[in-house]
TrEMBL record:
Segments forming domain ABC transporter: 3-236
Domain Mop, first and last residues per copy: 291-356
PROSITE patterns, sorted: ABC_TRANSPORTER_1 (PS00211), ABC_TRANSPORTER_2 (PS50893), MOP (PS51866)
Keyword Cell inner membrane among record annotations: yes
Keywords per UniProt: ATP-binding, Cell inner membrane, Cell membrane, Membrane, Molybdenum, Nucleotide-binding, Translocase, Transport
One Pfam short name: ABC_tran
Name of protein: ATP-binding cassette domain-containing protein
Superkingdom of the source species: Bacteria
Gene3D superfamilies: 2.40.50.100, P-loop containing nucleotide triphosphate hydrolases
Organism: Saccharopolyspora halophila
Length: 364
């Protein structure tokens, strides 16, 4: 069963415009900041919200067609949802929570319980069957909620920030479980998340939504390895500076008044839009312009110092945008830098990947 979606929805200060497909068994991750339209999109898929114009089609059958007057109600769409909170029925045991969907669909009590036991086993929660939700940890409750969603045999599975409410110990185990379970499903899945790690581990393809518009899409690893937009680069934990290629090989681009050299991913025409992408860990910070081995050096001002475990992320504003560098606390102390200080950010050319961009220059 494949999912096809076209939707346009306008509100006073917001507009959602989206078009995409999800193949059978494929997981599509939708990433974006708060207010991007992710929850609105899920509401359209579930039938809780009708767009101004659009069509939602599963395996050739229209759930929604605003032009043809079709709008299948939520309870008849066969949508399974795993949200941030497990939302289990507090008065039912874990087994009966999972059996609820099959039972509501007309299955006998004995058969629905057998199905529940099967799915509890699938999510490694067999021993939780007799417990009520009040006796489950957050991670355990999410396992039961996943089993409940799948036991109903949904035609479309939606995951809405499924790991956001879990603690740092429970989230990795649940992420691994989701990876195993979703690989075995033939159902199209739409995953909404803020966490790029969820997309890397779980999703086949990635769709980045900002202000209701799709700004990037494609295979997950490709999008994150070759981000075309600054927002996506920040999601991926990378620096991205956009400019114009200075030569056909594409090894050097002009970024404002600066030039940046690196390893070209593809050939680009001189003057074409291109971007330099590099990791914060590859960036060094200096008080004066560095010399010696071939380096790219950008002058800027420190905008923030963020402790991150055993490193400090130094954020700075340069002419073409912003740069992040991960340096040791000792280096920060030795440099004596504070917010608003002028510094040089340096990165070796070998650490920079130059990517062609479509749709013109990104700007800052």
């Amino acid at each position: 069963m494949s999912l096809r979606v076209e939707a346009v929805l306008r509100r006073a200060e917001f507009a959602l415009r989206t078009e995409f497909e999800v193949a059978p068994g494929e997981v599509l991750a939708v990433l974006g900041p708060n207010g991007a339209g992710k929850s609105t999109l899920l509401s359209v898929l579930a039938g809780e919200l009708v767009p101004d114009r659009g069509r939602v089609e599963l395996d050739g059958t229209a759930w929604l067609d605003t032009g043809g007057g079709v709008n299948v109600p939520t309870h008849r769409r066969g949508v399974g949802l795993l949200a941030q909170q497990a939302l289990l029925f507090p008065n039912l045991t874990a087994r009966d929570n999972v059996a609820f969907g099959p039972r509501a669909a007309g299955m006998s009590r004995a058969r629905s319980r057998a199905v529940a036991d099967q799915w509890l086993s699938e999510v490694d929660a067999t021993d939780l069957a007799p417990r009520r939700p009040g006796r489950l940890s957050g991670g355990q409750a999410q396992r039961v909620a996943l089993a409940r969603a799948l036991a109903a045999e949904p035609r479309l599975l939606m995951l809405d920030e499924p790991l956001a409410a879990l603690d740092v110990d429970a989230a990795p185990a649940m992420r691994g479980l989701l990876h195993q379970v979703l690989r075995r499903q033939g159902t199209p899945t739409v995953l909404v998340t803020h966490d790029v790690l969820d997309a890397v581990v779980l999703a086949d393809r990635l769709l980045v939504l900002v202000d209701g518009e799709i700004i990037e899409r494609g295979p997950t690893r490709e999008v994150l390895a070759r981000p075309r937009e600054p927002f996506t680069a920040r999601l991926a934990g990378l620096n991205l500076l956009a400019g114009e290629a200075l030569d056909r090989i594409g090894a050097t681009i002009a970024v404002g008044e600066d030039t940046i050299s690196g390893r070209p991913v593809e050939e680009v025409e001189p003057g074409a839009a291109a971007a330099a992408v590099f990791a914060p860990s590859a960036v060094a910070v200096h008080r004066s312009r560095p010399h010696g081995s071939p380096r790219n050096a950008l002058r800027g001002r420190v905008s923030a110092l963020e402790p991150r475990g055993d490193v400090v992320r130094v954020r700075g504003d340069v002419e073409a945008g912003s740069v992040a560098a991960d340096v040791t606390p000792a280096a920060v102390a030795e440099l004596g830098i504070t917010s608003n200080d002028e510094v040089w950010f340096a990165v070796k050319a070998a650490e920079v990947a130059i990517h062609p961009l479509s749709g013109g220059s990104l700007g800052a």
